[in-house]
Amino acid sequence: MSRSLTVHDPRGTPPGVTGERLAPRLRSLDGKTIYLVDCLFDNSDRFMGELLDWFGNNLPSVDARIVKPRESWVDDPDMRKRIENDGDGAILGVGL
Question: What is the pTM of this model?
Fold first, then answer.
């Protein structure tokens, strides 16, 4: 008896990637608002808390704020708009 067997290539076909330029670097953080984005990974909340404390102790002129998306791995347009409208920069925290 013969059987039909289908084999899939596990490597798949990667999507095309288009490079994008990075945002221009700020000359200084003095007086700027920097959002610390907790990306909801394991322990990222602890890391962002430590980073917030570091800014408070070492760069007190920076208004550092922690912000979180509504859920992990899902775009949060409201959060992005808030950062764009009120912030000068953002740091993404992905956990430990």
Answer: 0.76
DSSP assignments along the chain, one per residue: ---------TT--PPP----PPPPPPS--TT-EEEEEE---TTHHHHHHHHHHHHHHH-TTSEEEEE--SSTTS--HHHHHHHHHH-SEEEEE---
Residue in the block written with tokens 């602890």 = 46
Q: Summarize pLDDT for 11-66 with one digit per residue, the tens.
A: 777 778 899 998 889 999 999 999 999 999 888 899 999 999 999 999 999 999 99
Burial class (CB in 10 A: 0-12, 13-18, 19+), 6: exposed
